[in-house]
Amino acid sequence: MQDMVDTLIQYGYIVLFFYSLGGGMVGILAAGILCSQGKMEIGLCIFLAFLGNTLGSTLLFILGKYYKKDIMPYFKNHRRKLALATMKIKQYGTILLIVQKFIYGLKTFIPVAAGIAKYNFTKFAFINAFASLIWSIILGLAAYIFGHIIEEIFTQLGKYPYIAPLFLLALAGIIWFYLAKFSKK
After folding, report:
1. In angstroms, rounded to a whole number, what is the distance separating the alpha carbons of residues 83 and 80?
2. How many CB atoms lie under 10 A from the CB of residue 58?
3. CA-to-CA distance for 150 and 164, rounded, in angstroms?
4. CA 31 to CA 63: how far, in whole Å?
5. In angstroms, rounded to a whole number, what is the distance separating the alpha carbons of residues 120 and 7?
6. Could you tell me if 15 and 27 are in contact, meaning their C-beta atoms sit under 8 angstroms apart?
7. Using CA atoms, how far apart are residues 144 and 28, in angstroms rounded to an integer?
8. 124, 61 in Cβ contact below 8 A?
């Protein structure tokens, strides 16, 4: 276990950047916790998560805008969701581009849908950078501030090993129920 933590600390900044290209919510939270333990620098982690998230969403936007025909086979099973996201982009634009950063599962669809909807690139780039900055600061600082509490929870869970699988099973059930209910709408 210690070897894994040492490797993560050694390559953590690089991993955080590349992980943030695809969303990176877990990455910035893990980095914030490591920062609270003094193993990484919080300012650099927030900056790298911001940079990676901004770049990743911009690339998805470009794929949607200029390579729609090439990427549509990859979204074959999600055409309805993509069409709904495109309609919502036209309705709610700015608000949706900010909020989607915090909702798992929408982070891929919304930038692609914005590109397909012919959203203004300059406006998208500005809103995306602003949303990525807010996202990285809020999640990074929250994990940093609550890092010691989270570490204590895992220490307590380590004393009672039968609780962790029950907790993970309950969490998976809640997520499954939420996604099943959300996808029916």
Report:
1. 5
2. 18
3. 14
4. 29
5. 41
6. yes
7. 10
8. yes
**pLDDT higher than 50, residue 131:** yes
Weakest-pLDDT range from 1-5, 33-37, 53-57? 1-5
CA separation for the pair 131, 119 (Å, rounded): 16
Tokens of 94: 């700015």
Task: Using DSSP, state whether 183 is helix, strand or coil.
Answer: helix
Angle between the N-to-C axes of helices 42-66 and 2-21, in degrees from 0 to 180, rounded to the nearest 10: 40
Average pLDDT over every residue of 135-161: 84
The letter for the amino acid at 107 is K
Tokens in use for 132?
A: 């990525």
Alpha helices per DSSP H over the chain: 2-21, 25-36, 42-66, 68-71, 79-99, 106-116, 121-145, 147-159, 163-184
Structure tokens at 158: 């380590």
Q: Which stretch of DSSP H or E encloses residue 119? A: none
CA 153 to chain centre: 23
- Residues 69 and 67: their CA atoms lie apart, in Å, by 6
By the 10 Å C-beta count (0-12 exposed, 13-18 middle, 19+ buried), 119 is classed as buried
Which pair of tokens denotes residue 42? Answer: 């919080």
